[in-house]
Amino acid sequence: MTARVCVLIPVWKDQPGLDRTLATLAKETLPLDIVVVDDGSPTAIAAAPLAGPHRVTLLRLPQNRGIEHALNAGLERILAQDYAYVARLDCGDVPLPGRLDRQVALMDAESDVGMVGTWARCVDDDGKYLFTLRFPTDHAAMVRKQRYVPALLHPTIMIRTAALRQIGLYSDRYKTAEDYDLFVRMGRKWRLANIPEALTEYIVSDQGTTQAKRKRNLIARLRVQKDNFSAFDPHAWLGVARTMLFMVIPFGWMIRAKAVLWK
């Protein structure tokens, strides 16, 4: 059966994480293809041409330019073919049973949905459960939430390729918040959705991008909020204030608070 779904995985210096994700995808019964983009890793990333029955295409970029460039390189390859949907995963993160099938079923049934995410089961580097990320599922609530923070988790999403062709690829204006900008643009033209079930296992790493680039991410988030600011929307004002407040709260405090409140 021809694959209607292509999974896009960017990678930089994380061969073990990629191996874990590909091993999980190899068990998927849904027909799919996989595009892995090596964002200029010093030691070239390796990937077999098949993960189970699924074809794997490995693109190697000549230098590390950031995730938005890696994602766009992969999307250009995907959009040149006839896929209906593109699913996102990060290295080490895994789709839990039923995720991709559920997302395809929703997108097939609801043609005005341009992007659908899931809730996420968050674990540490050793796989220990931390908390569950829960997002609103109604489009209006998601648009309102995005005045404050992204209303979807990037590695959980599936995107309709027709919608992506309409709104365009990731912008390089918002380093580390390229996903937030894409979600906002998508929400203007297409309906957003989340499946209210933890269908993705997401690693919250002490060594990863979330901590190392948190301040840069908040600055980029603030830029997205300012570029989409509406003076007549109180949520726009509150969103900017929230982002500025989070700039002074230590990352470790946030993780501990989430582990208590979001169990």
Q: Which helices and strands appear, and what pairs or packs with what?
A:
Blueprint: E1 5-11, H1 15-25, E2 32-38, E3 50-51, E4 54-60, H2 67-79, E5 85-88, E6 94-95, H3 99-109, E7 113-123, E8 129-133, H4 139-145, E9 158-160, H5 161-167, H6 178-189, E10 191-203, H7 209-212, H8 214-227, H9 234-246, H10 251-261
Parallel strand pairs: 1-2, 1-5, 2-4, 7-10
Antiparallel strand pairs: 3-4, 5-9, 6-10, 7-8, 7-9
Shape, per Cα inertia axes = globular
Give the N-terminus to C-terminus distance in angstroms: 40 Å
Low-confidence stretches: none
Q: How many whole angstroms does the radius of gyration measure?
A: 18 Å
CATH topological fold name: Spore Coat Polysaccharide Biosynthesis Protein SpsA, Chain A
Individual helix count: 10
Q: Which H/E pattern describes the elements?
A: EHEEEHEEHEEHEHHEHHHH
Q: Assign the CATH superfamily.
A: Spore Coat Polysaccharide Biosynthesis Protein SpsA, Chain A
Largest sheet: 10 strands, mixed
Overall helicity: 25-40%
Sheet-strand content, in percent, reads: 15-25%
Per CATH, the class reads: Alpha Beta
